Amino acid sequence: MDEGADVPAEEEQDVSAEVRARVLASFGRQGLMAHLGARITRVAPGSVHIELPHRPELTQQNGYFHAGATSAVADSAGGYAALTLFPATADVLTVEYKINLLAPAVGDHLEAVGTVLRSGRTLTVCRLEVFGVRDAGRTLVAGGQQTLIRVEPPTA
């Protein structure tokens, strides 16, 4: 793993307006997230939350959120958590991720939380959690880990 800094525990920290704008602009270019109806609800240093409202189009045969939708928002939450710690010129790509589906994904919406565990010069590792949310209750429905690579966009 690349030499890097451990990320402080998530607290009531906030990112700069520039970082927030960069994350939201990148998220806005993701066709899949728009198609699913996902939205970012929190951006902090090394942490991003994404909400996915329940819709019949996102379910599997038993009415639970489909594992593909659950995995997609988890992957994006981790990627954007990493992006909050990268330089303004850098972008991010997922190298690999592993997700465990821990319970049926039910609720009014899912909340995916990506949290950077370690950010390096090249590789970053994130924890992925997805919660089913109904009223005030939250149930952990998926958990995993992800490795991302920092890339520089191609120059024109």
Q: How does the SSE layout of this entry go?
A:
Layout (H helix, E strand, L loop, with lengths): L3 E3 L10 H12 L2 H6 L2 E6 L2 E7 L13 H17 L7 E11 L7 E12 L2 E12 L2 E15 L5
Antiparallel strand pairs: 1-5, 2-3, 3-5, 4-7, 5-6, 6-7
Question: What would the keywords be for this entry?
Answer:
22% helix; 156 residues; 3 helices; alpha+beta; 7-stranded antiparallel sheet; disordered N terminus; single chain
Overview of this protein structure:
It is a single chain. With 156 residues, the protein is α+β, with helices and mostly antiparallel strands. The chain contains 3 helices and 7 strands. It has helices at residues 17-28, 31-36, 67-83, and strands spanning 4-6, 39-44, 47-53, 91-101, 109-120, 123-134, 137-151. Strands 1, 2, 3, 4, 5, 6 and 7 form a 7-stranded antiparallel β-sheet that branches.
In short:
The chain is α+β, with helices and mostly antiparallel strands. It has helices spanning 17-28, 31-36, 67-83, and strands at residues 4-6, 39-44, 47-53, 91-101, 109-120, 123-134, 137-151.
The helix content, as a percent range, equals 10-25%
Radius of gyration: 15 Å
SSE pattern, N- to C-terminal: EHHEEHEEEE
Note the main sheet: 7 strands, antiparallel
Mean pLDDT: 92
Number of helices: 3
> Roughly what fraction of the amino acids lie in strands?
35-45%
What general outline do the C-alpha atoms trace?
Answer: globular
The SS-based structural class is: alpha+beta
Number of E-type strands: 7
Distance between the termini: 31 Å
Low-pLDDT ranges:
1-12
